[in-house]
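To fix ideas, we reproduce below a protein record of this kind.
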Amino acid sequence: MKPLNIDPSTFRYHALIGTGGIGAGTFFLLSGNHTLGREESRLGRFLAKRDYCKLHIITHYVKALLGPSFPVIEIGKVGDDDVGKRIRAEMEENGLDVRYVGVSAGDQTLFSICFLYPDGTGGNLTTEDSASFKVSVGDVAQAEPEFARFRGKGIALAAPEVPLEARHALLRLGTKYGFYRAAVFSAGEMKPALAAGMLADVDLLAGNLEEIATAIDMDASAQPAQAVAEAAVERLASIFPRLELSITAGRQGSYSWDGSHLHFEPSFPVPKVESSAGAGDSHLGLMLVGKALGLPMAEAQQLANLVAAMTVTSPHTIDYRVNRDSLREFARQSGRELHPSVRRLLAE
């Protein structure tokens, strides 16, 4: 592990506590780049690629780049099956704190089927009756002593693939103990999350264009990315004045709103896209790294774009090659000028 070039005593936040999906999956490569139709049958083949689920992906990058002095505490469940045992052991081996990752007897571990088009884009289908969806408000409450331990100095993360009620409980604990609170919702969850008032307990709302557009009743496919980002700022910031936004726009780049400025950061050039699955999760992970370091939003965003670009060159949804040295070399090959603070973080 080669984390970023940082002095742990300078961290703005000192731990992350999160809940979300923990599991595995498989990849299926479709024949043809045209979008899969509702009743279409399409040929394809399974690929030898490793897939992971939301919480695991996001927090892996936080831990890998902030290092052993930054605790990352997971709240979730796996099944009492071989997949669950393997994933839990892998997380622990890579430094994630899995004391609050329970084993749900009789349930299977969360599993996803990631479908890919030949151009590297794609999406995923995820089981909704797995151990992850048994995570309860009570499970989250068991970790309250950890929130108390890092009062005013922690990041709370609510990620998809566990019930909204459990995620809201985590965000409320974040509010109670003065945490910086980050959340991401799938497009299908956005309206229920808004109706439940969850954004009142969120400091950073992250998502892709489709997810953010759903929150403001826009069709992302019919509007330029800039228009979606501007509309999201106008509508959401008027209701939640302290809300920050992180919006990924694929190959175009990303947008961030820090409460006063909307910033666009172009994507880094990529020699060959192997898979875009997991790139948005890696991007959020690095936005949270930036928050932990106290970086301005735009600088954190450039670091997040850099990591997301590198991850799409990997066939797996967690790119274990990502560290300070590999990112510095990837940035050098891109020819892109980095913010001075980002250069310092990647320095030898």
Q: What stands out?
A: The chain has twelve helices and 13 strands. The chain has one domain: 16-35+42-334.
